[in-house]
């Protein structure tokens, strides 16, 4: 393996398949080729030092509030002996950094792939909307927690020797922390705190990885529904470009492209004003009875049954178990 950033052994996982990403410059092409309707995970290989030495791990997100694009969760981990490295890299809360500064620090993180690793999950708008609209609703807090837990498990399963975990949260830290301790009883120290991204450099590193990934995902969004009008901006509801884009690109029947989180009040308000109303009639039990010559619509979606050979039917033989 070459020792430059181009071979930093970052890889992406999509529905069980993995594709290597070599540096920040590969993030945009990566997101351009992916199915935006499903969640995406990309990660670095665990450095040997992170397997041999005890490590700290930080968790943070980017894009929780926007109406457009994915919510991205990220983790970063590094040996306890490399705490000063994170400070030297300039790791700070990504929200306080300019985009150029975030990119610069992200590049440095990639350069130091022998000393630290990270994993990022881009949770699609479609996944967020589906979770919040299904009959058994899943709150955004639950979606966030499940992502964080999954990323921590992924790092541990890959061989990282995690002994400390620091998580930034917008909810109640005590309840979240208790749940993590129950799930990861072998991790001696777990801290869940508000503003952890500005307190712990390892959380700041996770924040930067998440934010840079979201920026590239939003820029590289490929619209399957056709080219929309204008620039969509940052995706935040108070962004004038985003407001204009939302107003100009609503379809009265189909609503919005998949980049939009339909469950957000911003989208619901515009749909209420500009989309056509749909009325669903109540169906009585009597209406469900079909006429003798009518077929139920579900019949068209059933898998056709294979007709048995006459050898078996003549002898009244039937398959009772398939190997």
From TrEMBL:
Manganese or magnesium. Binds 1 divalent metal ion per monomer in the absence of substrate. May bind a second metal ion after substrate binding. Residues 54-276 form the RNase H type-2 domain. One of its GO terms (molecular function) is metal ion binding. Transmembrane segments: none annotated. One of its GO terms (biological process) is DNA replication, removal of RNA primer. Its EC number is 3.1.26.4. The keyword Metal-binding applies. InterPro entries: RNase_H2_suA, RNase_HII/HIII, RNase_HII/HIII_dom, RNase_HII_hlx-loop-hlx_cap_dom, RNaseH-like_sf, RNaseH_sf. Keywords: Endonuclease, Hydrolase, Metal-binding, Nuclease. It holds the Pfam family RNase_HII. GO terms for cellular component: ribonuclease H2 complex. It catalyses: Endonucleolytic cleavage to 5'-phosphomonoester. A divalent metal cation binds at residues 60-61, 168. Its cofactor is Mn(2+); Mg(2+). Gene3D superfamilies: Ribonuclease H-like superfamily/Ribonuclease H, Ribonuclease hii. Domain 2. The keyword DNA-binding does not apply. Belongs to the RNase HII family. Eukaryotic subfamily. Catalytic subunit of RNase HII, an endonuclease that specifically degrades the RNA of RNA:DNA hybrids. Participates in DNA replication, possibly by mediating the removal of lagging-strand Okazaki fragment RNA primers during DNA replication. Mediates the excision of single ribonucleotides from DNA:RNA duplexes. PANTHER family: RIBONUCLEASE H2 SUBUNIT A. This is Ribonuclease. The lineage of its organism: Eukaryota, Metazoa, Ecdysozoa, Arthropoda, Hexapoda.
């Amino acid at each position: 393996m070459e020792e430059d950033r181009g071979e930093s052994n970052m890889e992406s996982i999509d529905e069980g398949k993995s594709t290597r990403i070599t540096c920040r410059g590969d993030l945009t092409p990566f997101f351009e080729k992916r199915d935006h309707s499903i969640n995406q995970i990309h990660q670095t290989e665990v450095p040997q030092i992170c397997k041999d030495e005890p490590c700290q791990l930080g968790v943070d997100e980017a894009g929780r509030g926007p109406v457009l694009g994915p919510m991205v969760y990220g983790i970063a981990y590094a040996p306890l002996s490399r705490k000063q490295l994170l400070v030297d890299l300039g790791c700070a809360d990504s929200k306080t950094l300019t985009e150029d500064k975030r990119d610069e620090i992200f590049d440095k993180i990639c350069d130091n792939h022998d000393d630290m690793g990270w994993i990022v999950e881009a949770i699609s708008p479609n996944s967020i909307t589906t979770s919040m609209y299904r009959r058994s609703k899943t709150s955004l807090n639950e979606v966030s927690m499940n992502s964080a837990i999954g990323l921590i498990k992924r790092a541990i399963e890959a061989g990282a020797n995690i002994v400390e975990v620091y998580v930034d949260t917008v909810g109640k830290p005590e309840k979240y922390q208790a749940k993590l301790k129950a799930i990861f009883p072998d991790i001696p120290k777990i801290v869940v705190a508000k503003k952890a991204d500005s307190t712990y450099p390892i959380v700041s590193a996770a924040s930067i990885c998440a934010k840079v990934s979201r920026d590239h995902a939003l820029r590289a969004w490929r619209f399957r529904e056709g080219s929309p009008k204008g620039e969509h901006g940052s995706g935040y509801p108070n962004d004038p470009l985003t407001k204009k884009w939302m107003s100009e690109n609503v379809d009265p029947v189909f609503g919005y492209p998949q980049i939009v989180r339909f469950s957000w009040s911003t989208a619901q308000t515009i749909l209420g004003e500009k989309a056509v109303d749909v009325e669903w009639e109540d169906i009585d039990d009597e209406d469900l009875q079909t006429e003798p010559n009518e077929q139920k619509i579900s019949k068209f979606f059933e898998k056709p049954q294979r007709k048995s050979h006459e050898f078996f039917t003549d002898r009244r033989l039937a398959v009772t178990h398939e190997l």
